[in-house]
Amino acid sequence: MPDASGIETQAFFKTIKLDAIDDSLPQEIKTACGVDVETCLECGKCSGGCSNVRIFDITPRQVVKLIKTGQEKPLLAMDALWACVSCQLCGDRCPAGIDIARIMDYLREKAYQKGIKATRYQVQLFHELMLGFIKKTGRVAEGQLIIRFNLKTGRYFKDADLGRRLFLKGKIKPFSSKIKNREDLRRIFQESIEREEDQ
Amino acid sequence: MNVAYFPGCSLHGLASEYDRSARLVCRHLGINLEEIEDWNCCGATAAHSLDHKLSVSLGARNLNLVKKMNLHMVTAPCAGCFNRLKTASYELRHNPSMAEEVAAIIKAPAPVETEVSNLLQLFVEQTGVSAIAQKVVRPLSGLKLAAYYGCLLTRPQRIAQFDASEQPVSLDQLLQALGAEPVIWSHKAECCGGGYAASETDIVIDLGGQVLEAARQAGAQAIVVACPMCQANLDTRQKAIEVNRGQKYNLPIIYFTQLMGLAFGYSLRQLGFNQQLNSAVTLLKQRGWG
Q: To the nearest whole angstrom, how far is the Cα of B252 from the nearest Cα of chain A?
């Protein structure tokens, strides 16, 4: 919207329309995460402390507000879900003890299960590839994971020189170790969602 | 003292010098580390981002293996592993329905007895800073260091239950006990970008860059870490950060166990100082420490 000087002013963060009040989402969060968003004081310390808020489309404080008003759709589609580095500052600083990082995990998991396309697909792909390694061997070989990731994203030479230097420093092992008890792993992964590796 | 040891994937790979120096220093202090046989990956950010129950189950299996070793405490040098194990333990202790589900998955009662400690915590709380100071044969005098805790050693405080999450001091005190001079700086508990080094490198260049810049402004000669992700991000992306910010840093990123070993008289090579890209070898050799 143009201001008095006629200059187009752009909202830094997305405008959110609050058009419905529905308490099923706060209840769901309470049951799943053990967090009561109604205790939010709207002080904004979560957003003030957030490591990555500069690139968030919806700030941590707005996340809590949207939960209070039952706005699931923008929450599951927001870029902030995949830009969040899980540094835990938001919840740690909350005077009301709202574990926002846990809420973010819950929302990510829900968006993933619903098949909502992540805005930063590389982040989700990286997670999937990593879980694929764990499912297969019980452990992660970092070098192999990063090579696999770069091949999948078509960035064939990204970090190739870095990889070579780290290999020469003895930091990348050509072989990965596997755990012996596959039955334990099978049970642990059995109940979890289908992964990219299975396709 | 016998303690179960959870190295995690990084200490078997990118952070092998952390593993080596941790084992050396523990032996020197009379701590007997018993590596958990058949441990599995903690699941890291990937598991807790996509599947909460999976992340708790992966941790619970490890905690149960510790119980089977008849040990009551496990130590994880990696801040990420520590955080995941501690979170799993917290969930099992405070969330009865989750504990029940996970017990069925790992086919064992929820291992709520196992205590989880990070390695820095083990030294500070079990051995004690003054006992460590007594072992110093080569005081690291005049070395200005930025003690960098990052996110996951202390946060969330409710779960980590270690030091203070806004202004942690344990690593500063330990470095002081080694004779070094910890600098006062702004970014000791800020985030380096964590596990995004490969998938969202720009985020690491931004957040890691802020950490390096803060350390430089505080006059640090090196940054001391207790986390393989912090080490990898600040060391391997330092060159890209320098290009991005138009500022040279030349800051070695050192594990605290390497400095403990150095102060205890071990050689740079034994402690893996030669394995890091922005090497501290020149800085330390100039002082006659080798």
A: 15
Local confidence band at A159 (pLDDT 50, 70, 90 cut-offs): confident
> Nearest CA to CA, how far is A7 from chain B (Å)?
30
The verdict on a CB contact (< 8 Å) between B194 and A85 is: yes
Last residue of a domain, one of A62, A94, A113: A113
CA pair distance A136, A179, nearest whole angstrom: 9
A160 CB within 8 Å of a chain B CB: no
Dihedral pair phi/psi, residue A138, rounded to 5°: 85, -10
Indicate whether A15 belongs to any domain.
Answer: no
| A93 and A172 part of one domain | no
Whether residue A107 is found in the same domain as residue A125 = no
Q: What average pLDDT does this structure show over B29-49?
A: 97
Could you report the per-residue pLDDT of B219-236, keeping only the tens digit for each?
999 999 999 999 999 999
Residue A44 located in a structural domain: yes
As given in the structure block, the two tokens for residue A72 are 């699931």
Using alpha carbons, select from B9, B105, B100, B90 the residue that is nearest to residue B57: B105
Residues A51 and A128 in one domain: no
CB contacts of A160 in chain B (<8 Å) are none
What is the dihedral sign for C-alpha A110, A80, A197, B12?
Answer: negative
How far A22 CA sits from the closest chain B CA (Å)?
25
| Reduced DSSP (H G I as helix, E B as strand, rest coil) percent helix, strand, coil of chain A, to 5 | 55, 0, 45
Domains and CATH numbers, chain B: 2-120 (1.20.1050.140), 129-286 (3.40.50.11810)
- Strand-pairing partners, residue B74, are B4, B116
Q: How many domains does chain A have?
A: 2
The one-character DSSP state at B123 is I
Q: What is the CA radius of gyration of chain B?
A: 19
State the residue range of the domain holding A140.
121-190
Prediction ipTM score:
0.95
Q: Which of A92, A119, A144, A148 to mutate to test the interface with B (most CBs of B within 10 A)?
A: A92
Candidates A85, A146, A179; nearest CB to B196: A85
Residues in chain B: 290
